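quick one: manganese (II) ion bound model?
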Amino acid sequence: MLLRLRQGLAPHELGTVLDEAERQGATTRFLDEGRTLLELTADGRASGFRPGARAAFEDLWAVASVLDASDAPELFATVVPGEAGEVAAKDARFGGGDLSIVAGPCAVEDRASLLEIARQVADAGATLLRGGAYKPRTSPHAFQGLGRDGLALLDEARAVTGLGIVTEVLDPRDVEAVGAVADVFQIGARSMANSALLTEVGRYSAEHGTPVLVKRGIAATVREFCLAAEYVLNEGTSRVVLCERGIRGFDRVTRNLLDLGAVAHLKRATKLPVVVDPSHAAGRADLVAPLAAAGVAAGADGLLIEVHPRPETTHSDGAQALSPAAFADLVRRIETLAPACDRRLVRLARVEA
Ligand code: PEP
Ligand code: MN
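yep, here:
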């Protein structure tokens, strides 16, 4: 591990770094005359550190930065779920060459429209139905979701269609109730940094096996994103899926900036499946299909798509919702594209039969 230290450290300030190095069992060597570049080795190797070693140095005031990101192995980089990098939920499978499509309305709004959309996305080729019963809204005055009533409707939609359910949990106090219905927990972009929630969901996942889809925060670096997943993994589950949904850019042409470089990177740097959400990235329906295709080309193991037959009537995210027909068209295109990208589209078992 390589540390850049602050200039002109007093002996006691430098001492905090050397003491930490000793605690970690590391050998130290200055690489420059100014004594600001400090090389650390543990067990005779730059990569001999335990998870958390990097963070311990980052927390020290005397350390300006840790320069080498690759030498403090963390769970997201090393965890090997059942089969390397694969997560399954009901009929959906992410990773290992399998690509699954998650679709549904932004929010669960009423029984009739939820069942209508669930049937439409199941027929078109989704394996998981996604809709929020608890909605993280930017404004406290906006529709906040149906809560427990929404969960009951999702349960019914699963029974009717055979789709698994992906739904967001916002509050650690709701983890049990959401877990009773969800086949996959969603941690939304606004919650990515909520470590108490990540820990609670991780604990539930370790006990019950429910996978956790972690969305990237709107201004999160790739490393912060990975460390959010690490909170979940740290509780003893391996069933985590990363979701790139766009980060805040400076241009208003799209709602967010879909970071496909991060998708390609994450497929190399972590063992976790990666899903792309082109709906929240684009913020407009006409760009969803091209961004979905680009996500698959960049390595995505799944897609998360918002669908609504009457987007003008929705409480949230109407502008980015695909019509059921446009969604069916997108699925056909992805099914054609997937084999060229060494992946295959997973279908609902009942549709395959
Ligand atoms: C959503 O999935 O509907 C949502 C609110 O997304 P995000 O957390 O990515 O903003
Ligand atoms: Mn939404």
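The radius of gyration is 22 Å.
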